[in-house]
């Protein structure tokens, strides 16, 4: 079947994101095998269309006008158990992989229990994590397509340059994650279950129910705050709110009294100040205005710059 037949036109994207915001993709395709991925890319290049990638849409803000190009969604959702390794397609859902690794008595992904829709590809790109664990801790190798060079490449864990909420894939949009081998750690079932339950409880208490895209801003390194505003860093030290050398962006936003601040249908969650929620009719414009407002206020008050964790596509 030619690739054109698989490409849909004018595909609504909001339902494919957890934020439930944004317009349609000019062109859209789901790719389940490597041949389709390469053909779709070649098609977009030939037609001079921009290329966008969509995982589970749990970290995304799609422009109200939609995306003027080809959106590629990963439908390679398999996860093969080679205990203690798992070979996962980029489109495998994190929830599915956690359920499999948990049943296999393997530890390393418990932090992600309860996150809706996220995929392995998206989690590697942003080195997603929580509660002191990160996706990168369990990445052994990643297979990616290098769009610029037109070839497949294998990345070792070191090659992936996995740092706090970042990776080589985040810094180079020409690298498309296709699959990954994760290497997990055998652990007693009670330990895994205890960690899952504890993390789930923290999410239940602190995270909003309304549509959102996870944390709006990255947490801040205390060392960076110390450079920008030593007095404030001292205050943070006194409060004992830094964990692993980082301070929650939500702590600053809450301290400044911004919980509940709204622009149109976008609102700083009352449950967690680092979440922006869609109260029902939020537009991408509302969210971006709110993000801008928060960044300006935090810079003026604390002299530190917040950086977005949410990815805005336009
Ligand atoms: C309720 C909730 C809780 C959350 N909790 C956490 C948390 O605890 N920790 C955390 O880190 N995050 C959290 N998130 C954010 C989000 O789940 C993660 O960032 C996740 O890794 C995003 O994966 P995704 O598949 O949804 O990616 P998407 O949102 O679809 O995409 C994110 C970015 O990755 C790119 N991308 C996706 N797939 C690929 C690929 N195969 N190759 C190249 N680029 C790709 C996209 O183009 C986009 O730029 C939370 C989100 C929600 C809604």
Task: Characterize the largest beta sheet: strand count, sense, and whether it forms a barrel.
Answer: 5 strands, antiparallel
Average per-residue pLDDT, rounded, comes to 97
Query: What is the rounded distance between the termini?
Result: 30 Å
Proportion of residues in β-strands:
25-35%
Which structural class do the helices and strands define?
A: alpha+beta
Instruction: Please state the overall shape, judged from the principal axes of the Cα atoms.
Output: globular
Q: Which small-molecule species are bound to the chains here?
A: flavin-adenine dinucleotide
Protein architecture, described:
With 314 residues, this protein is α+β, with helices and mostly antiparallel strands. 31% of the residues lie in helices and 28% in strands. The protein has 10 helices and 21 strands. It has a 5-stranded antiparallel beta sheet with strand order 6-7-13-11-12. The protein has a 4-stranded mixed beta sheet with strand order 1-2-5-3. Strand 18 and strand 19 form a beta hairpin. Helix 7 crosses helix 8. The longest helix is centred in the C-terminal third of the chain and has 19 residues. It is globular, with a radius of gyration of 20 Å. The relative contact order is 0.13. The site of flavin-adenine dinucleotide has 32 residues, from strand 3, helix 4, strand 9, strand 13 and strand 15.
What's the topology here?
Blueprint: H1 3-6, E1 8-12, E2 24-31, H2 34-46, E3 50-54, E4 60-62, E5 67-74, E6 79-82, E7 85-89, H3 94-103, E8 106-107, H4 120-125, E9 129-130, E10 133-134, E11 139-146, E12 151-156, H5 168-171, E13 175-183, E14 185-186, H6 189-206, E15 212-215, E16 220-221, H7 222-228, H8 230-239, E17 246-247, H9 249-255, E18 262-263, E19 266-268, E20 275-278, H10 284-302, E21 311-313
Parallel strand pairs: 2-5, 3-5, 4-21
Antiparallel strand pairs: 1-2, 6-7, 7-13, 8-14, 9-10, 11-12, 11-13, 15-20, 16-17, 18-19, 19-20
Helix pairs in contact: 7-8
Bound molecules: flavin-adenine dinucleotide.
């Amino acid at each position: 079947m030619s690739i054109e037949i698989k490409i849909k036109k004018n595909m609504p994207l909001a339902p494919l994101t957890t934020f439930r915001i944004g317009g349609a993709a000019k062109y859209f395709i789901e790719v389940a095998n490597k041949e389709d991925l390469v053909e779709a890319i070649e098609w977009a290049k030939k037609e001079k269309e921009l290329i966008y990638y969509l995982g589970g849409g749990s970290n995304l803000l799609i422009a109200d006008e939609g995306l003027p190009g080809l959106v590629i969604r990963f439908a390679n959702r398999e996860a093969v158990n080679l205990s203690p390794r798992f070979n996962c397609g980029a489109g495998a859902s994190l929830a599915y992989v956690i359920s499999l690794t948990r049943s296999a008595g393997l530890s390393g992904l418990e932090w992600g229990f309860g996150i809706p829709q996220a995929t392995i590809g998206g989690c590697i790109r942003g080195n997603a994590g929580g509660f002191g664990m990160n996706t990168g801790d369990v990445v052994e190798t990643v297979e990616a397509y290098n769009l610029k060079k037109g070839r497949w490449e294998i990345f070792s864990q070191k090659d992936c340059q996995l740092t706090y909420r970042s990776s080589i894939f985040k810094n180079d949009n020409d690298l498309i994650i296709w699959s990954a081998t994760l290497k997990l750690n055998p652990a007693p079932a009670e330990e895994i279950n205890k960690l899952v339950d504890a993390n789930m409880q923290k999410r239940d208490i602190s995270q909003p129910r309304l549509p959102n895209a996870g944390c709006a801003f990255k947490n801040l390194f205390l060392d960076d705050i110390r450079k920008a505003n030593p007095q404030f860093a001292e205050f943070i030290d006194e409060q004992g709110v830094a964990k692993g050398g980082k301070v929650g962006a939500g702590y600053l936003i809450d301290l400044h009294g911004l919980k509940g601040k709204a622009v149109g249908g976008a609102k700083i969650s009352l449950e967690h100040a680092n979440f922006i929620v869609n109260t029902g009719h939020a537009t991408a414009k509302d969210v971006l205005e709110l993000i801008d407002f928060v960044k300006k206020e935090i810079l003026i008050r604390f002299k530190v710059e917040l950086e977005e964790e949410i990815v805005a596509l336009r």
